[in-house]
Structure formats: C-alpha cells, structure tokens
C-alpha cells in the first residue's frame, strides 16, 4: 500500500498517466491520471485504441499508430513523442513510453506504459533553439559587417601611403617636411594595423586565420616596431626607451613576420600606455634555455619592461 501511494504521488506530481493495452481483447485501459492529460471525460472513454489514435494530431497520427504496432510486432520497447489536439483546438506535446509483455509461448499479450505532457519542456526547447539561431544569425551578421567595414576602411589607405612615398622623395632637401611626412606615414600605418587586427577578428571567428611562416629576423621586426609604433608615442609622454640586445643572441626565427609584428606592436603600445610619464621602457632581447636544454621561445611582459624571449 505504501509503495502504491508513493507511485500515485509520483505520477500525480509529474503529470504522468499509465495505460495498459490488452492485445487479446483490444481493450486500452487508462488510470485516472490519463483523462485530464488528454482532456477526455472518463464517461466518454471507449477503451478502443482507435479512439486514442484519433486524439493524435493528424500530421503525427500515422507515425504514432505505426510505432505502436511496430513495437508489438518486433517485441521492443516503445518510445515516441507526438502532438495532440484538444477540444478547443490547442496543440500539446506528449511523450509516450511502453513495454511489450509476452506469454509462455513468446507471443505478445499486452503492452503497458506511461504518458506525460511535455509541452512546457518542448516550448522551452524551441524557445532556446530560436534564441540560439537568432544569436548565431546576429553574430554572423556582425562578422560580415566587420569584414566589409575593414576592407572598406583599408582601401583608401593604399593611395595615401603611395602619395606619401612620392612626397618623401621630393622633400629630401627639407628635414622638417620629411619629419612631418614620416609622422603621417607612421599614423597611417598604425591605422592600417588596427584595421588588420579587426580583419583578424573576423578571420578567427570564421576559422580562416592562416599563418604565413618563414625565416625572419626578430631584431629587424623589433627595430621596425619600435621606430613606427613606440618612438613618437613615448616622446609625447617623455618616456625613456632603451633597447638591449644580448651579445650572441640568435634572432633568426621561423614565424609569421606580420603576426610577430602584431605581437610587438601590442606589447609596445601597452608598455607605453601603462608606463607613467617621464618613466622608462626597457626592451631586452635575449635567448633562454628550456629545462631540456633547448631554445625556449616565449614572450613575457613585466612592469615597465618588455622582455622578448626568442
């Protein structure tokens, strides 16, 4: 009695009903939890499987009926989800589980199971899917927008750089003008680098970022980064910039030069940004050994110091 009471409470709390289909007599009996689940009055219930199938949504009916008979014929468990249509036309989602029982001759004699209303769970699942699809569509639109914007922003910079190159050739006799043109070039290149970073974000998001590795000189890349991305900014903050390269350091590396330049640019910009005015930035290039005795390439940022372990 206690076990039956616990079962009753469990079924009632979970909005689950039980059913039993006698395959010899054709009677489909329901417990009293099934009637509110399917919005059927007990007095109207005929105990005919056909009347149960008639409650199923027309688009799911053939599939449900075939699943029941297929489970009986193949002596396997039933597991099926489907929709039903209420008297007022509302559609609800149901989940049905059943098991076939055999007699001594291995012939199916009955099928018993449970039904439960999973409408809320299905609606939640559909809402989450819609939200996920919407978020993915918005993210894709953002990536496409950034890609288009980045290309559009970069296009005008090419003729600007070409014009600066021409002006620099014509202004060789004017140091002051050359300094101004150098400043313009430097700022245009910084703008181009920022746009490249923006393009890289879209490439990473799409899994299309490619590395173009080659034999490059880290010292040359460092000199270029300091000259173009640090010197002018550091001068405005009255920062002392020192570059220390250890004797005998190996500077040839197998890497993507443009990506290493990006790394250097970000490191130097951060060093300049977070160093107080009239402070000092020390950039040191040296080789270190790994625990196994080999070269250990690494990049480390320290307070007011950028150490490039190459």
Outline of the structure:
This protein is an alpha+beta fold. It has helices at about 1-15, 35, 50-55, 60-75, 120-155, 155-170, 175-205, 220-230, 230-235, 255-275; strands at about 15-20, 30, 80-85, 90-100, 110-115, 215, 240-245, 250-255, 280-285, 300, 305-310. The protein has a five-stranded antiparallel sheet, with helices on both faces. Strands 7-9-11-10 form a four-stranded mixed sheet. Strands 6-8 form a two-stranded antiparallel sheet.
Description:
With 310 residues, the protein is α+β, with helices and mostly antiparallel strands. 51% of the residues lie in helices and 23% in strands. The chain has ten helices and eleven strands. It has helices at 2-13, 34-37, 49-55, 58-74, 119-154, 157-170, 175-205, 218-229, 231-236, 257-274; strands at 16-22, 28-30, 78-85, 91-102, 108-117, 214-217, 240-245, 252-255, 280-286, 298-302, 305-309. The strands form three sheets. A five-stranded antiparallel sheet has the order 2-1-5-4-3, with helices on both faces. Strands 7-9-11-10 form a four-stranded mixed sheet. The protein has a two-stranded antiparallel sheet with strand order 6-8. Strand 10 and strand 11 (305-309) form a beta hairpin. The radius of gyration is 37 Å and the shape is elongated.
What order do the SSEs take from the amino end to the carboxyl end, as H and E?
HEEHHHEEEHHHEHHEEHEEE
Shape: elongated
* Poorly predicted spans: 295-310
Distance between the termini: 78 Å
| Structure class | alpha+beta
Largest sheet: 5 strands, antiparallel
Q: Rg to the nearest angstrom?
A: 37 Å
Strand neighbour order, sheet with most strands? 2-1-5-4-3
Give a count of the beta strands, DSSP E runs of length 2 or more: 11
The total count of helices amounts to 10
Give the DSSP E fraction (strand runs of 2 or more residues): 15-25%
Percent helix among the residues? 40-55%
**Chain-averaged pLDDT:** 83
